[in-house]
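Incident log, entry 3
Record: N5-carboxyaminoimidazole ribonucleotide mutase (164 residues)
Problem: checksum mismatch between cached and fresh output.
Input:
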Amino acid sequence: MSETPVAIIMGSQSDWATMKHAALTLDALGIGHADRIVSAHRTPDRLVDFAKSARDAGFKVIIAGAGGAAHLPGMTASMTPLPVFGVPVESKALSGKDSLLSIVQMPGGIPVGTLAIGKPGAINAALLAAAVLALGDAELAARLDAYRARQTDAVALEPVDEEP
Ligand code: RP5
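Fresh output:
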């Protein structure tokens, strides 16, 4: 497997607070990733260069996070055959509903796998990327199984009172 099979791209520096949770999840699974700011509307040439060269660069999966009028995942998917997972970043004006609808409503023909708004979506995008990569990597599959087992083991049977 390539040393950096996952590319995490985001439309703005302001998206990193969300998208770093994808990075941290990949780190926990020992999956290499490249993290880049690529804006569909502020750096369109960077987007074209990235998307058209992503497969030859060795990436296997792309995680794309953006907020508001979130063109980035769909535009990326239009220029690469790699699987693209879109993370709707929570926007100030519309709490990420705009991001979600922008990303999820792709016309038939160019798919973007759309995750939940915000941090949960970023984490799950990384876990989906891991699941895709694990199809061809038995060691990663074992690490992913162990990650899920740890998560299961961390759930107590009975609730306790928490500090208010
Ligand atoms: C989008 O606009 C970005 O993905 C970001 O979520 C949103 C706001 O960007 P900034 O104004 O914070 O740079 O392109």
